[in-house]
Amino acid sequence: MGIKLYKEPELENPVMFCGWPGIGNIGIGAIDNLRAVLKAQEFAEIEPWDFFEPRKVSIERGLLKDLEFPSSKFYFQRISNQDLIFFIGQEQPAEGRIKYAEGKKAYKMANLVLDVAEKFGCRRVYTSGAAVTQIHHTVKPRVWAVPNKQSLIGEIKQYENTILMSEIEGSGRQGAITGLNGLLLGVAKKRGLEAICLMGEIPYYLQGAPWPYPKGSKSVLEILTKILDVRIDLRPLDELANTVEENVEEFLESLYKAEAIPPQVRDEIEKLRYARPTEPGPITKEEQNEMMKHIDELFKEGGWQDEKHP
Amino acid sequence: MKNILKFSERPEFQNPSLIVGWQEDSGKLSPKVIEYLNKKIKGRSFCEIEPVSFFSLAGVAIKDNIAQFPENKFYYCERNDLVIFKGSEPRFERYKFLNAIADLAQHHCKVKELYTISGTISPIAHTSPRRISAVFNQKQFQEKLQGYGLQDMNWEGTPAISSYLLWVAKRRGIPAVSLWPEIPFYLAASDDFQAIKLTLSFLDKKFNLDLDFNELNEDITNQNALIEQLREEDSEINKYIGMLESELSISEEEQVELTMKVTAILEKS
Prior knowledge:
Chain A is α/β, with parallel strands linked by helices. Chain A has helices at about 25-35, 105-120, 155-160, 180-190, 215-230, 235-255, 265-275, 285-300; strands spanning about 5, 15-20, 40-45, 55-60, 65-70, 70-80, 80-90, 125-135, 145, 160-165, 195-205.
C-alpha cells in the first residue's frame, strides 16, 4: 500500500486542495474544476488495490487486458509564485457496504494524502464538500467553513459569502463532518498542519438526487479563487448550474402535477423560495423530516451522507 | 501473509499447477468439479486461509438445513504436480485474500500455471454443444493451450473473482487461465452435469488424470431423461427449449417459467 511518485516537482510551501465525490459532488466539482482550469500536471497517485474494488475488467480475444480501479491522483501547478497541489479521488474508501469513508481504510488514505502534503512542505490543506441545509435551489448557496485551528477563524471571517458554525441558527456552534473531508481535517490537526473545509450549501431535498449541484461548487470556487487571487472563467459552471436548476424545477413541477408528493410538502419547499439565507429556516425540523420521507423515496437509494448535517 | 495461511503439512512440490474452484457457482460447476477431482486424485488438505477479516463471522449462514462456514483449503495429491484450492468468495479484503492464494502458489508451491473454474450462464439449450470460454493473463500461455478447444472470450464489465485472481497472478508473472464453461440459464440453480463433465474432460486431457466418467455419464443421461419427460408433458416447455435449440430467444417471462419448471423437476428427483 503506497504512493507512486511519477516525478518529484520542486515546490515551495504549496497549498493542497483535496476533492472526493460526495453529496451533489459539490467539493470535487469545485476542486477538480480549479485543477482543470489551472492545467495542473499529474505527478503521483495512491495505489488503489488496498482501498477499492476493481470497477471494470477488459478482456479482448481471450486475453486479460486490464483491471480498472478508482483513481486517487495528485497534481501540481505554480501560479504567480504560488505552488499548488491538487488531490482528486474518484471514490472515498469505504469498508463493507458503507458508501462513505470511515474506518481503517479511510484513516490510511487520509494519512497517505497528508504524507504527500508534508513531503512537499505544504503549509495548508483545503478540503471541500456539501452542507445540507434549508435553502431553495434558486437561492445562491453560502459556504460553511470549518478550520482545524482557532487561529484560522479571523481569516475565514474575511471570506465573502462564508459562515462559521457559530453563525448557523440552531447549530449550537457544533456539528460533525463525516467522510474524508472531515477526517482529513482531524488527521491534519494531529500532525499540526493547518486545514480548512469549505462546504457549499445544497437544499436538503436534493441531497439524495443523482445529479450534481454545480451552484454549490461555484460558491466554493468563488472563495478559492479569492484566496488564490486568480481569475477563472466561471461561465461553464454557471451554464451547468442553470441547466440543473431548470431540471430541478421541471422535476418538482412534474411531481406536483402527478401529486407524487403531498400538497403540504410542496408548500414547504415553496416557503424556502422566498426565505433570505440569513434567516433561520422557515420550516420546522418536524416539517423537514416529514418532507424528507417523501423526497427520499423519490430518489430511491438516496445518496452520500458523508458531509455536514446540522 | 504469515498469519493468513495456516499449514497442517508441508508437502514437497515439483512446479505443480494450481486449480482454483469456488464454493458458489452457476450449475454448481466449480464446487462439483473440485469435489470430483479431489475424490479421484485422493486430495489431502495441507493448508487453509484463516477466515478472519475476509468473512463476516457474526454467526453462520444456513443452507439446505445445514449451518455453513467459509472454507478455504488447499489440497495436494501424491502425483505432486497438482494443487487444488476450494474456497468461498471473500466478502471483504478481496485483494488481500487473492494475494494469499498467489503467495502460496508462488512461494510455497512454486506453481507453473494457475487455472480457475467458474460457470458462465448462457442462453443455450442443454442439448446444444457446450463450449468452454477462456481468459488468459499471458499470450504465451494462450498459445500453449491452443488445441484444447477453448474459445477466446471478449468482455468488459465488473470483474468476477476469477478475473481478479488472474490479474493478481499476472502482476506476479504467474501464467493463469480462467475457464468459463457455458451453463444453460435454466440449469444455473441445479447441477449441470454436462458442463461438469466438459470441464473435467479438459482437465483430464491437460493433466493426464485418467478420470472415469461412468458416474457422470449416468447423471447426464438421467438429467436429460427428466427434462425430456417434462418436454413431453408440457408443450410450452417443449416449445421454449425447441426455440433455444434453434438459437431463437425467448422472453423474460418464458425464461422464468422454463427455469422454475426445470429446477422443480430436477429437485424433485
